[in-house]
Specification:
By secondary structure, the protein is an alpha/beta fold. It has helices at residues 3-15, 18-25, 29-43, 59-86, 99-102, 106-116, 129-138, 184-188, 200-211, 225-234, 243-247, 278-294, and strands at 48-49, 56-57, 92-97, 121-126, 143-147, 155-170, 191-195, 217-222, 239-242, 252-255, 263-271. Helix 1 packs across helix 2 (18-25) and helix 2 (18-25) packs across helix 3. It starts with a helix and ends with a helix.
Length: 297
């Protein structure tokens, strides 16, 4: 059964006449009659009573008419929905990011996205990059924000900006007002609160320490950026975090290390060849726009 059959049936039912219905549909009367017969044969019941001067619906025709009209209405609404999605007046976006970005990037970026597209429903998740890539490949996510060192060849990375790590302390720390860079010896003497080894940031820190022969004094390990920030603000423990986090908080002070801490490249992650919805394309465009305006962080 084709949509054409339903449209033809509704036209005949409304005009009560094959000739007038054929004229309205711009088809020949024999063609119209043939299509209606095919529909009746498919359904196994007569839909039209052709015995009188005017075409009448049979009982089956009356019952079928209601569903046929609803089907056409739903299809017309589907066309409007496609237009609405393209115009971003409806739709959804499934976004994931690694935890460090939640502390300083998520808020401003999502604020601007919501201001531009308030009718888009956002589903935002925080997770390690390895899991994010798996979910992108499985089609469970639309886009991720993580780092350009991807684990799977099926993941495409679009560079956003270069992120720098820094040593971060609270206002009560002895080095809070220090203007010169800390030496490795000074760094090695500090008690630290660090993210645990599930975080990419921690792996960068461990790599830095190994390269420079430093054995960090780890007083606390946590699995939350917010927990690290709270501990540093309230104690004399130090940490290593993206410098953008320290710049946005009055109670934190950023210190340089010599040799400098590693930099890493933040990126949008997408599955190669995946369909990108209008909402996804809009988010990518906004993120790239913001990264171009902000430069390195």
């Amino acid at each position: 059964m084709l949509l054409r059959h339903i449209r033809y049936f509704i036209a005949v039912a409304q005009h009560r006449n094959f000739t007038r219905a054929a004229e309205a549909l711009h088809v020949s009367q024999p063609t119209l009659s043939q299509q209606i017969r095919q529909l009746e044969d498919t359904l196994g019941v007569p839909l039209l009573d052709r015995s009188g001067r005017e075409i009448q619906l049979t009982d089956a025709g009356v019952a079928y008419m209601r569903y046929a009209q609803r089907a056409l209405q739903d299809l017309d609404e589907g066309k409007r929905a496609i237009h609405d999605v393209q115009e971003l007046t409806r739709g959804s976006l499934r976004l994931a990011m690694t935890p460090t970005f939640t502390a300083y990037l998520t808020g401003p970026l999502l604020e601007k996205y919501y201001q531009r597209y308030p009718d888009i429903t956002l589903n935002i998740l925080e997770m390690p990059q390895e899991r994010m890539e798996v979910m992108l490949i499985e089609g469970a996510l639309d886009v991720g924000i993580a780092f350009d060192e991807t684990h799977s060849p099926d993941i495409e990375a679009q560079v956003l900006f270069v992120e720098a790590l820094a040593m971060v302390v609270g206002r009560s720390h002895a080095y809070a007002k220090k203007r010169t860079a800390l030496t490795l010896r000074e760094f090695g003497g500090e008690s630290l609160v660090l993210l645990n080894e599930e975080f990419a940031t921690r792996r960068y820190i461990d790599r830095y320490c190994r390269q420079h022969g430093v054995a960090p004094r780890i007083a606390m390990e946590v699995n939350s950026i917010s927990a690290v920030i709270e501990v540093v603000q309230r104690t004399t423990l130090a940490t290593l975090l993206p410098d953008a986090i320290a710049r946005e908080r009055d109670k934190l002070c950023m210190l340089k290390l010599e040799p400098t801490l590693p930099k890493r490249t933040a990126a949008l992650l997408l599955r190669k060849g995946a369909y990108r919805s209008a909402a996804t394309r809009a988010f990518i465009a906004l993120a790239l726009e913001e990264s171009a305006a902000g430069g390195s962080r």
